[in-house]
């Protein structure tokens, strides 16, 4: 039955993974035959659905404590602008997605300005990894939290924040069997933000030079985003191996089906590669000062969510000060040549991923919770 009442929703996502989640939530909401108009912050996925797009994810290219500090004045101005927009327009609901270092201050300022409408947050801040006090803070300003991992519920429920487990979006990815022994195509995933891409591309260049020497007939596949494509194209323009750079979703999926290995920036991309049954090596590098500061209040040993959950190195990862040319080449060589180890990686991953889903799709569950507020 069609609901003829008109609704307005403000939705905010400042990272690529959040843009993916946001666009799918919007699509599912529209399938419900609700008459909804959307404004907000998002990337190329959400953009077609937004009547008013106030900022793009291109405006959020920083990572790490030090980098955020240097961009603080810019983000404060953005928050003030958005608060004014939200307060002066009769939105029925506000939805924020991930990016707690931006979305929490935004919602906190809304509440300080006596904003009474319901506010939902999707993707819990990683309070189990660092800054556990955020759970209590979130409980004071949000009406509901939708989490991707079941173990996260307890951290927020103890502060009486309504918390619902919806499962992880990798639910939607098709798992395909791979011939891991082949070295026909390798995926390079250097990140979704310009800052992290700039830090990691030198290691992808080291990997390229290794491949040129030992696997010159291999194909390198680089899935990326429209705002990063020109930068990556320029970086790899002199590479002498066949390179496929794509921003097209269908083309990306087709190429993934041919990939037998992957070199991946830590984050959501690593989990998506895991679901695709592709053996991977994860790398990540924070600013040195950020790393030193983080050592004092980070509770977990690993960067990759699967490794964090199991508290052991299921997926090989090299991060921060450990990431240097010697260690990187050793681990990259192992990825390319140790197929027994790669098979063990995939077997262990598939065992762990069984706990990441419910029987219903995540976006269906998310929309069921969201529509309860309309």
Summary keywords:
single chain, 374 residues, alpha/beta, Rossmann fold, 2 domains, seven-stranded parallel β-sheet, six-stranded parallel β-sheet
Describe the model.
- By secondary structure, the protein is α/β, with parallel strands linked by helices.
- It folds into two domains: 3-167 and 358-371, Rossmann fold (3-Layer(aba) Sandwich); 185-356, Glycogen Phosphorylase B (Rossmann fold).
- The chain has helices at residues 16-31, 65-70, 72-87, 100-112, 134-141, 153-157, 194-214, 226-235, 249-256, 268-275, 288-294, 305-310, 325-337, 339-353, 362-371; strands at 3-13, 34-42, 50-56, 93-97, 118-122, 144-147, 163-165, 185-189, 219-223, 243-246, 261-265, 280-284, 317-319.
- The strands form two sheets. It has a seven-stranded parallel sheet with strand order 3-2-1-4-5-6-7, with helices on both faces. The chain has a six-stranded parallel sheet with strand order 10-9-8-11-12-13, with helices on both faces.
- Helix 1 (16-31) links the parallel strand 1 (3-13) and strand 2 (34-42).
- It is globular.
- The two termini are 15 Å apart.
**Average pLDDT taken over every residue:** 91
Total discrete domains: 2
Strand content: 15-25%
* Structural class computed from helices and strand pairing: alpha/beta
**For the CA atoms, what is the radius of gyration?**
21 Å
Taking the alpha carbons of the first and last residues, their distance comes to 15 Å
Order of helices and strands: EHEEHHEHEHEHEEHEHEHEHEHHEHHH
Which topology of the largest domain does CATH recognise?
A: Rossmann fold
Got a strand count?
13
CATH architecture of the largest domain: 3-Layer(aba) Sandwich
Please tell me what the overall shape is: globular
- Unreliable spans are none
């Amino acid at each position: 039955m069609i609901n003829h009442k008109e609704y307005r929703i403000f939705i905010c996502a400042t990272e690529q993974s959040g843009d993916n989640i946001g666009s799918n939530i919007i699509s599912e909401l529209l399938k419900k035959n609700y008459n909804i108009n959307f404004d907000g912050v998002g990337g190329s996925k959400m953009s077609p659905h937004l009547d008013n797009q106030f900022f793009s994810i291109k405006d959020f290219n920083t990572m790490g404590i030090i980098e955020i500090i240097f961009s603080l004045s810019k983000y404060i101005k953005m928050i003030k602008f958005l608060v004014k927009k939200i307060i002066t327009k009769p939105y029925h609901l506000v939805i924020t997605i991930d990016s707690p270092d931006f979305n929490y201050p935004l919602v906190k300022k809304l509440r300080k300005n006596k904003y009474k409408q319901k506010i939902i947050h999707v993707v819990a801040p990683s309070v189990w990894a660092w800054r556990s006090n955020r759970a209590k803070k979130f409980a004071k300003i949000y009406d509901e939290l939708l989490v991707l991992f079941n173990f996260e519920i307890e951290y927020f429920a103890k502060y009486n924040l309504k918390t619902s487990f919806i499962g992880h979006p990798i639910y939607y990815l098709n798992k395909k069997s791979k011939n891991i022994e082949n070295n026909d195509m390798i995926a390079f995933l250097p990140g979704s933000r310009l800052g992290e891409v700039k830090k990691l591309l030198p290691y992808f260049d080291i990997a390229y030079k290794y491949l040129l020497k030992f696997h010159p007939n291999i194909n390198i596949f680089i899935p990326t985003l429209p705002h990063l494509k020109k930068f990556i194209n320029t970086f790899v323009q002199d590479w002498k191996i066949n390179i496929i750079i794509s921003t097209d979703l269908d083309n990306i999926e087709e190429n993934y089906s041919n990939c037998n290995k992957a070199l991946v920036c830590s984050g959501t991309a690593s989990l998506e590669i895991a679901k695709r049954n592709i053996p991977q090596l994860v790398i990540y590098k924070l600013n040195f000062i950020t790393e030193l500061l983080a050592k004092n209040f980070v509770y977990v040993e690993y960067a990759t969510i699967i490794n964090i959950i199991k508290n052991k190195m299921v997926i090989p990862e090299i991060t921060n000060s450990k990431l240097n040319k010697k260690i990187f080449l050793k681990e990259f060589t192992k990825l390319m040549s140790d197929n027994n180890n790669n098979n063990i990686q995939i077997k262990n991953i598939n065992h762990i991923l069984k706990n990441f889903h419910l029987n219903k799709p995540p976006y269906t569950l998310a929309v069921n919770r969201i529509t309860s507020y309309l």
